[in-house]
Each structure stands twice: as structure tokens, then as C-alpha cells.
Design a protein that fits this description.
The protein has a four-stranded mixed beta sheet. A three-stranded mixed beta sheet has the order 1-5-4. The longest helix is centred in the first third of the chain and has 17 residues. With 320 residues, the chain is an alpha+beta fold. Helices cover 26% and strands 19% of the residues.
Length: 320
């Protein structure tokens, strides 16, 4: 029997978000392909625990999984999956009264054709009608099963903030030890998933896919606001009063920005097209919030302020 998502992480159902995160980080360090290049089973396990963490760290999907609405792959459970589930023969023979037919439990089909299943339950005549498409349960037909593809492998890729803005290709090492340059899509954000066709495990029907989940690293002074980027920029009192051209960092290199005369703290200046690309390719802006830096130990500034009578009352609009 395959392990459920909690068992893959060595946890019990009801584990907290912190416990899930801690268990995943511990296992990921042990099983990462870069540390187990000669152990293909480690790469498989790494994919399994990463997939388990991706699903359990999503509150909505975890709740649906806990309720039995989706399976370990995150797919909705089909009505015939493990049987219809509601009628029980425990403690008696036959269906329990009051339950609908949609909840009848046929038990596991073990991969059997549904036409054969219905023939065994309801007799050869019904089974024959089912396979021929007339009557019965809507025309189940026997057909040969296609060879199954290999399993998908899940990866998490943490990328620098600046690389996400510039959509710089990222080099990633796959479970088989091969490296590829991954192209980031427009509109990339935390949780974006990229499918790499044919980069999963081998199977009779071909290779599965690799599923790469993107995580954008936090930055020391940039913050993301949709497709825009925000930056707090310190300026001197002189630059704010008299105006100036100052150098401002952007994720793709420094640029010159004009500080208008009489700029006050909190004023937001805009650098167009310096933000993230949206899915349609249009780029956001870099929003620069001016912060006036007043030195605390400048004697000349102290003498000026003592002799200056200007400024009025900047708090008058507050009623004080």
C-alpha cells in the first residue's frame, strides 16, 4: 500500500503547519539529488516528499485531502475509485436502508475492466449490454489499457529576487543528475509551477514529467507589490530642499532619479517599467518612497535651525 501524504513526511494526520514544514526541510536535506547522485531511490523519495509538502502546505488542498475529496496526486477522487463507499455489509447482508445507489461499495476493482465488474455483479446479460453500448450503465466498453507513463517528479526552486524580475534563466539539476537552464515565464510569482515534459521517471508508456514549483527569495530592501516593486530611498535634507539627481538601485542596475525641489518625506516617485512582467508581458514600475535623513550631530545644521523662523505649523491639518 502506498504511503499517504502525512506518512511520506513521517507525520500523523493533524500535524501543524510548523511540523509539516520542519519535517519537509529535514527530509529534503537528506534526500536532495545533489547529495545522492548515486542513489536513484533518493531522487524518487525527494520527489514524493516535495509533492506531499506542496499539497499539505496549501490550506485549501490539505482540507480537501483530509476530507477525502482528492487523492495523493491532488486529483478529484472518481466515484468508482475505491468503490462507491456508502453501503456496508458489516453487521448484516446487503445494502443498508435509506442510502442512495451512488454510495454502494463494490470494493476495489484491482484494475479490472468496469464491463467485467458489472457482468460479475449483475449477470452476463447486463454485462453484454454494457459492452455493446445498449442499456445497462451507459455503454462501458472493454478496451486495452495504454502503457502507463512513469511518475512525475516534483522540485522546489528558490530563485533570487532580481532574477525573477529580469526573468533570468535558472540552472536546475534534475533527479538523473542532468542540468538544464529553466526559462522563467512572464507573470512568475511565488508558487508558479512549470512543467518539464519527459523529465520525470521512466515507465512502460514513456517518461513522466518534472513539476518545478518556484519560490522567490525575499530581498534586503525591495518588496513586491503586485507587478510593482517598492523601495525606501534615503536622501539628505539638502537634496530634498534644493532638489538633486541621485543614483537609485533597481534589480537590473542603478539609474539616475530626479528629486524635485521641496520634496517631503513619504513622497513616492516612479521609475516606469522597472517592475515584474505581468502574464501579458507588460511590466510594472519601481515605486520609490523618499525618506529624508536628518543628521543628529551636524553643528552647522543646528545653528541654521536655531536661527530659522520658517516652516509654519505642519500639523495644522490635524487640528493641533
Amino acid at each position: 500500500m502506498s504511503l499517504d501524504l502525512y506518512q511520506r513526511l513521517g507525520l500523523k494526520r493533524g500535524a501543524s503547519e510548523a511540523e509539516i514544514k520542519k519535517a519537509y526541510r529535514s527530509l529534503a536535506k537528506q534526500l536532495h539529488p545533489d547529495r545522492n547522485k548515486d542513489n536513484p531511490n533518493a531522487a524518487k523519495r525527494f520527489g514524493e516528499i516535495t509533492h506531499a509538502y506542496d499539497l499539505l502546505s496549501d490550506k485549501d488542498k490539505r482540507a480537501r485531502y483530509d476530507r477525502g475529496e482528492i487523492d495523493e496526486d491532488g486529483n478529484p477522487k472518481m466515484p468508482f475509485g475505491g468503490g462507491f463507499g456508502g453501503y456496508s455489509n458489516a453487521g448484516g447482508s446487503g445494502p443498508q436502508p435509506g442510502a442512495g445507489f451512488e454510495n454502494f461499495n463494490f470494493g476495489s476493482t484491482d484494475g479490472a475492466d468496469l464491463g467485467d465488474l458489472f457482468e460479475g455483479l449483475f449477470g452476463a446479460a447486463t454485462g453484454a449490454r454494457s459492452r455493446s453500448g445498449g442499456g445497462g450503465f451507459g455503454g462501458f466498453r472493454q478496451r486495452s489499457k495504454a502503457p502507463q507513463e512513469g511518475a512525475d517528479i516534483a522540485y522546489r526552486l528558490k530563485i533570487p529576487f532580481e532574477d525573477a524580475v529580469a526573468m533570468k534563466p535558472q540552472r536546475i539539476t534534475l533527479g538523473d543528475g542532468k542540468t538544464i537552464d529553466l526559462k522563467l515565464p512572464q507573470g512568475v510569482e511565488d508558487g508558479t509551477r512549470i512543467r518539464l515534459a519527459g523529465k520525470g521517471e521512466d515507465g512502460p508508456g514513456g517518461r513522466g514529467d518534472a513539476m518545478v514549483t518556484i519560490e522567490i527569495a525575499a530581498h534586503g530592501f525591495y518588496t513586491r507589490d503586485g507587478t510593482n516593486i517598492r523601495l525606501a530611498l534615503p536622501v539628505t535634507l539638502k537634496e530634498a530642499v534644493l532638489g538633486a539627481k541621485v543614483k537609485v538601485p533597481t534589480p537590473e542596475g542603478a539609474v539616475m532619479l530626479t528629486i524635485p525641489k521641496g520634496t517631503t518625506s513619504g513622497k513616492v516617485l516612479r521609475l516606469k517599467g522597472r517592475g515584474f512582467a505581468a502574464k501579458d508581458g507588460k511590466r510594472g514600475d519601481q515605486l520609490v518612497t523618499v525618506e529624508i535623513d536628518v543628521p543628529s550631530d551636524d553643528p552647522e545644521l543646528h545653528r541654521f535651525a536655531e536661527g530659522w523662523s520658517g516652516g509654519g505649523n505642519p500639523r495644522s491639518n490635524l487640528g493641533v
